[in-house]
Amino acid sequence: MPEPTQPRRARHLMDPTAPRPPRDPEADARLARVQQWVMSVLAVTTILHLCVGLVIAAFFLDGQDTVGRVGLCVIAGAFGVMGVAIGLAIHRRPVLTPWLLVGTVPGVVGVWLVLG
Predict the structure, then answer these.
(1) Cα–Cα distances in Å, from 59 out to 18, 36, 82, 94, 99?
(2) What would the pLDDT profile of 24-49 be if each residue is shown by its tens digit?
(3) What is the DSSP string of 78-90?
(4) Domain total for the chain?
């Protein structure tokens, strides 16, 4: 008569004879750093796409409405500054830095395109 064998334990279940290894704090810190970078890149890229879209809308606005065109470019610059500030905040850096001037680039380029 064959011996009854124990059923094979599914791999996703905990095995009491082989507990999980303890967590590595360095690995957790590396993971948190990568998560910060991914979140900040996604946030800043999304906001900069909005800025470029506003500049394109200002460039193709019909008529001689210069005030509306410049207004859209100013809004694009304001969103650019907010995007840079959000990126700095995600990395827990001081928000009020000269890096905020980088956020005005879409607005300045937009005004140059609209008025030029």
Answers:
(1) 65, 34, 22, 34, 26
(2) 899 999 999 999 999 999 999 999 99
(3) HHHHHHHHHHHHH
(4) 1
Rg of the Cα trace of the chain?
Answer: 26
pTM of the model: 0.77
Inter-helix orientation angle 105-115/66-90, to 10° = 160
The per-residue pLDDT for range 62-88, each reduced to its tens digit, is: 877 889 999 999 999 999 999 999 999
Burial string for 2-38 (b: 16+ CB within 10 Å, else e) reads eeeeeeeeeeeeeeeeeeeeeeeeeeeeeeeeeeeee
Query: Do the domain assignments include residue 109?
Result: yes
Give a yes or no: residue 100 inside a domain: yes
